[in-house]
Amino acid sequence: MSSSLMVGIARQDITPPIGAWLMGYAPGRRAESVGDHLNLTVYAFESDGIRSLVATADVCLMANPLYITVREVMAEASGVPFDHIIICTTHTHSGPALRGTPGGVPQDTEYIDRIFLPAAKKAAAEAVAVLRPALVGIGEIHSDVGVNRRGMKLDGSIVLGQDPHGTYDPIMTVVSFREPDGKPIGNLIHYGAHNTACGKNPEISRDWCGVAIDRLEAESGGITAFFNGCEGDCGPRLANGQTTGNYQLALELGGHAAIDAVNAWRSIKEWRADLPMKVIAEDIALPFKPMPSEADLIKEIETMGNPENLVGLQVLSYKALLGRLELIRSGQKIESEKLFHTTVVSIGPLAFFPIPFEIFSRITLRIREFSPYPYTLSLSNANNSNFYFPSIDQIIRGGYEVWAFTSFNAQPFADDSEQHLVEGAVRLLNTLNQK
């Protein structure tokens, strides 16, 4: 066995047909054209006889059972253990519906069975089949493509927009792989910002990140894909002062992202072959809030009014309250925490840390600060998706994301869950680093 890193990259087109429902905003809209094609890209890594897959799909979100199914399909096709696979989404709001949206669109099961799962299977098998010795180069650049999107009005209320004073992660990272003779294998771009620049457009699109992907691919000659980081409270920094626009605005911002990605790639000075790949899969526990009394729950349900008049996200909130009431009345044991089985992959100084939420930037900044890995890439909506995960300093501010965090689950997570996630993440990263 050799400690030299082996890398294989494969990509499959997952563009839905014209007429498919586009997911991202409710109510959904039908695709009228293809602005740019969607892909599912798989990166296979091997070192010391151990293999892993890290994949990204140009879709918004997946239903949680689908994350499991995709990893199972990829494991069967590639021979890579289920626990060694990470699958995340770019969070484009101009892709197919891989999860149903109340008041919006149903899950597109035909698309999943006919296009998405076959693509995942084929890409996983191909990525392993083309594994070859690789050199790794890593570049970083300060990028203002993203901005905090939790705009604050004069009265202190939070709205979706741009907050020039808010937290965001300005670091764009490009990881590049080439063969020992210099032949390109591929790249990945990591950055944290919603892919919502297109707004409620009728075009199928990867959104702003698609322009950066295509430009870096043309410059480098290697397959390129995008991995989204702290997009929970970060959106695209559009010229209209919002975080939504139209397809033209997405292309405009994508041009800026493309310049940053190419410059980050060009900044790479060192290419290394002696970087070991490691994998760890362990649990991280996040605490639940104490369950309210039955009387308080009934009162809260009644304040929502006639359930037939509820729309969109209100439906999820109402169902969550009913779920809490049912849990209390069932006499079942009320759990104090939820365990998330987490797979972390590292390559030398680089670590992929999947987070099953739309994570806020302050949390990923803290994880990176205390991580033993200089390049710690937190991945949103990875291996699971449970709506937003705000940092504790934003709970008091409220707003759409905080409301989702506190309202969508039968057992909401505690307000200080950030601290448990950060400590759990750093524990896993330290354990992996010491293997």
Short synopsis of the structure:
This protein is an alpha+beta fold and 435 residues long. Helix content is 31%, strand content 28%. α1 packs parallel to α2 and α7 (361-370) runs parallel beside α10.
Question: How is the secondary structure organized here?
Answer:
Elements: E1 6-13, E2 21-23, E3 29-30, E4 33-34, E5 39-47, E6 50-57, H1 64-78, E7 85-89, E8 95-96, H2 109-129, E9 132-133, E10 135-142, E11 146-148, E12 150-152, E13 158-160, E14 171-178, E15 184-191, E16 203-204, H3 208-220, E17 223-228, E18 234-236, H4 247-266, E19 277-287, H5 294-303, H6 313-330, E20 337-347, E21 350-354, E22 358-359, H7 361-370, E23 375-379, E24 388-389, H8 392-395, H9 400-407, H10 417-433
Parallel strand pairs: 4-16, 6-7, 15-17, 21-23, 22-24
Antiparallel strand pairs: 1-5, 1-9, 2-3, 2-8, 5-6, 10-14, 11-18, 12-13, 14-15, 19-20, 20-21
Helix pairs in contact: 1-2, 3-4, 5-6, 7-10
Polypeptide structure, described:
Strand 6, helix 1 (64-78) and strand 7 form a beta-alpha-beta unit. The chain contains 10 helices and 24 strands. A 5-stranded mixed beta sheet has the order 7-6-5-1-9, with helices on one face. Strands 10-14-15-17 form a 4-stranded mixed beta sheet, with helices on one face. It has a 4-stranded mixed beta sheet with strand order 19-20-21-23, with helices on one face. Helix 1 (64-78) packs parallel to helix 2 and helix 7 (361-370) packs parallel to helix 10 (417-433). The chain has 435 residues and is an alpha+beta fold. The mean pLDDT is 95. The radius of gyration is 21 Å and the shape is globular.
